[in-house]
Every structure is written in C-alpha cells, then in structure tokens.
C-alpha cells in the first residue's frame, strides 16, 4: 500500500471512530461502550472486506489501528466532558468522510488482490458502508444507508470512478484523490440540500393487520 | 456443482433479490439502497457459509451473481414505477422459495466439502436464513425466523432430508428436488394456514420496570 | 487446548445457549427458533473470532458443540413447559458467566495463535460479547453491551488480566481462573448494585426534527 493510501486509511479510521463515539454519546454509553462502538464503526467494514476476500485482516498485524481508535474515543470523551449539544451534522459529516475514503481504499485493495471490477466496486462499497451499518444496527437505528440521502450511491460512485481511472492508467495518487473527492462531494451535497434519488415505494396492503400481531 | 444445482442457485439468487427489493420498496429506499438490500438478502447467507467453511466466497469468482441481483432490483423498480399496493404475501412467498433452495444447496455444499451431517445441516440452515435475517435486521424488523411460522424448521427439514437421501445414495437430482419441495411445501403451508409450532413462552417478571429504563 | 480450557469452553457454551433460550422464551419463539437463538448466542462470538483470525472455526471439527446447544435448548423448553414467570436476573447471570468465560478463552486462543496483546484482548472481548450482541440485535433490543452496566469493561478486564498473568508466567490454570473470576465478579457486582461507569452523553440538537422524518 502506498504512503498516501496508508495516511488516508488512518484518517478514515479516525473519522469513523469519531462518528462511532458521537453516536455512543447520543445513547449515553459508558466509556468502554464508546470504545467498542468506535471500533465497530472504524474497522467493521474493512474487516468484512478482508474476511470475504480471505486475505489477512488489516488490523491484526498492525496494532496502530486499535491505538488510534482508543485515542479518538478517549479524546472525544475528554473533550466533551459534560453533556453537550452537538449538531447532528457533525456525525453526518464525519460519517461522510469515512464513507468516501473507505469506499475508494476498499476498491483499490480488492483490485490489487485481483478481483474483477464489479466485485471490487462492491467490496469498496462494503468497506465504506458496513462499519456505519453495524454502528446503526447496534444502536437499533435503521442504517443511514437505507435512508434516502444518496449514501450507497456515493460509495459506488467513488469506487467505480477509481476503477475507471485505474483502468485508464491515470497515476494512482490522482485517481485516489479524484475518486474520494467525487464521493465526498456527492454525499455532502446530498446532506446539505437534502437531495435524494426518487424513492422506490410499495404500499403494503396487509401491513396494518400484520403490525398488530 | 452440477448443472441442476447451478440453475437452482441462480433462481434462489433471483427470488431472494426480489424479496430484498420488495422489502426495500416498503421502506422507500433510493434505487441504490434497493440494490444493496437485494444483494444482502441474496448473497448474505451463502457468503456467511463460505466464510465459516473458509472456502472461496462463491460470488467473487463469478460476477454473474452480482449482475443477476442488479437486474432483478432494476426490473423490480421499473416494473413498479408508481407506489403500488402489493400484498405482503408476495414477499413471504419469494422468501420461502429462497429459503428452501438455499437450505438444500448450502447443505450440499457443506457435505461436499467434507462437513459432518449435523454441521452440514446447520450450514444449510444458515445459507437459507441468514440473508433474510440480515435484510430484516437492516430494516429494524424482528427477523421472520423469530416469528412463529415454521421458518428455521422448514430449512432444517430440507437440509436434513437431503443429507438422509444423500446417505441412502438416492440419485442427487432426485434428492435435491425432494428436499427443496419438502421445505417449500412446509413453509408455504405454514404461511397459508398460519400454522405454528407451539411457542415457548416465558413471562418476564421484571420486564416492566426494565423497559422503563 | 488444555483440559481445563476445554471444560470451561463447554460450560460457556451451555450458559450462553441457556441465555439465548431464555431470551427466545421472552419473545415466544417456536422450538427451532429457540435452537437458532441459542446457537447464535453460544457460538456467534467464537465464530467471529476464528473467522477474523482465519483459523478453522472451532465447532466445525467437533459436533459436540452443536449437540450441547441442542440439548440445552431442549431441556430449557421441557423444563419450562407452561409459560412461567422467570426473573430477568436469570438471563443476566447466565449471560455474565458466558461473558467472563469466553473473554478469557478468546484472549488465550488469540495469544496462542501469536496475536499481539492489544489484538488478543480485543479478540477476547469480541468472543465474549459478540454472541450476546447478535442475540440482542436479532430480538431487536439494544445490546446489553450498549447499556451502562460495565459490560465491555468486564470482558476487557478479564482478557487484559489474563494477558498480564500470562506475561508474568503465572501457571496457566491459575491465570485462567483468576481472570475469569475477576471479569465475573465485576459484571455480577455491576448487575447487583446497578453500578455503571459515568455515561458519556451528547444531547442531540436536531434529533427532534430528524426523528419525525
């Protein structure tokens, strides 16, 4: 993995750990619960990717990832000592950074291991969305990815653009930066303007009776 | 894998992808969210099986699976353009087909990799139920498997019958068809007549106070 | 694995299977649903550990684990024939035993496979908490680990104490017993006196509007 990718990966770990810690604060967890939720969010997606690709899981060989998560969770707790009012947008924005970074990094890793392009884009999307999905599922919230604000879409754009630029033999540094920026801008724009793709809606005929069961 | 198994597998992917797309429509996801939920439902169980058996994950080597999911999700969205009233039974029936197919295919794969019979039946059940469980958990719904309508039971029947017929050296084609039909008929009958096994019920003494916390 | 570890592992399987069955009874599942929830609780954490460490999954080679789960679930159902009032504390205590046992066993396994200490402690915690987390997520309950009663904390204490005693070359039997007891006592004390670490709380500014969406 190139130097650039390594630092971007670390940055992704920090922002996702932060988003996990912020979510933990909203549910008033104890400090170790905060660390667990930070860790699940930060390394859940990459762990799933590596397990499915059956390549050694990235954080086993390098404890720096765990230390970064611990430090991020600790600093978040220390910095926000008393209950504070923090705009929900902080959580959304740190999540968006992690999503964009990990979608591209995951696609790159899958391609470098020889995966076909559609498989690599899926692995990238999984790297980007799975950590946040686990975080939301653990907090009993319907995952962000299932809401209407262009979430999976941004991850797929980032991964697919990277695969395309890679295929066109654009220098890797440029390809990575462009792909991350495209995913990030799309996701932030969707948050800011509350843009959504048109929803696919089914009205469930029997739902009322079923829900009473 | 035999020709028959291959086509049944593809059919299972399609019906589970459909059940994921229908669920997505009930929660009004955006088009890429529909694709994600279809994919999780269709390949979640088999992925879990292959990861636990530590054999290469089936959809990595063959992108046809991903294309099938994409096509199924796209066709579902196109076919149901405006919000429609779709009976919940559609979702239940497509889910039942996927359950029966994957329970038997999963058992077969585990046996062919040398697993003991009880382990193989468990792997089959997991292949059949895990995709739908992930779908339901992501939508914040208690999974079908935890309701009372003979769900895990049908998957175990299918897998165990296949293992038995396989042990009796019944020709594989016949064993597969019989096992799938048995699981499917049992599950559809349970849906149709709302048959359940007697529930195992504990009344929780302290639940009221706890729930208030 | 030493004789002692083997029997403690079996005991952990039984108490976690029991906690899964008790939870199943509270949600009135059918008998096979009870078995599934028992199995997920009992082997979910260890399965995740082995998959991430990419070592053969422990229950594949030894069907005794599945038989134990089946027997525990069956005995629970038979013993509690009619709906009964069972104090919620039963569930919490069996869960605490499983947590303490598996946290230490998981740490030991990771260390013996050559993992670094922080990684091993994390793998131990995962072994201890993941089964219960899966159980709670499937029942659509916010996992115990996310409540404030020193849950992850107890698992980390057990694993870290084991790693320390192991480093100090304390005989393995003594190290295991001490580490398990420390985690168990801490968790039971937290349940009994409702002790919690101070919660980390964020008040979410926009949550009201968001929740209405």
From TrEMBL, chains A, B, C:
Its main location: membrane. Residues 6-79, 93-165 form the Glycine transporter domain. It is a multi-pass membrane protein. Keywords: Cell membrane, Membrane, Transmembrane, Transmembrane helix. InterPro entries: Gly_transporter (IPR005115). It comes from the Bacteria. GO terms for cellular component: plasma membrane. It is found in: Cell membrane. The keyword Cell membrane applies. Belongs to the UPF0126 family. This is Uncharacterized membrane protein YeiH. The lineage of its organism: Bacteria, Pseudomonadati, Pseudomonadota, Gammaproteobacteria, Alteromonadales.
């Amino acid at each position: 993995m190139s130097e650039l990718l390594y630092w971007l990966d670390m940055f992704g770990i920090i922002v996702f750990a932060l988003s996990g810690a912020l979510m933990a604060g909203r549910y008033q967890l104890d400090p170790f619960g905060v660390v667990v939720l930070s860790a699940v969010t930060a390394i859940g997606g990459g762990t799933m990717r590596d397990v499915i690709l059956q390549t050694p899981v990235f954080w086993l060989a390098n404890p720096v990832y765990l230390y970064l998560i611990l430090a991020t969770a600790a600093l978040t707790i220390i910095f926000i000592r008393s209950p504070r009012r923090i705009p929900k947008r902080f959580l959304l924005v740190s999540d968006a950074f992690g999503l964009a970074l990990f979608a591209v990094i995951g696609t790159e890793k899958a391609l470098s291991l020889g995966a076909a392009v559609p498989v690599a884009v899926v692995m990238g999307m999984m790297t980007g969305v799975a950590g946040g999905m686990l975080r939301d599922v653990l907090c009993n919230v319907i995952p962000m990815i299932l809401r209407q604000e262009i979430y999976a879409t941004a991850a797929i754009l980032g991964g697919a653009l990277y695969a395309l630029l890679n295929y066109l033999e654009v220098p890797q540094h440029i390809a990575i930066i462009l792909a991350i920026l495209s995913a990030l801008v799309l996701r932030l724009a969707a948050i800011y303007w509350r843009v959504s793709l048109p929803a696919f809606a089914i009205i469930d005929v029997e739902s009322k009776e079923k829900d009473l069961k």
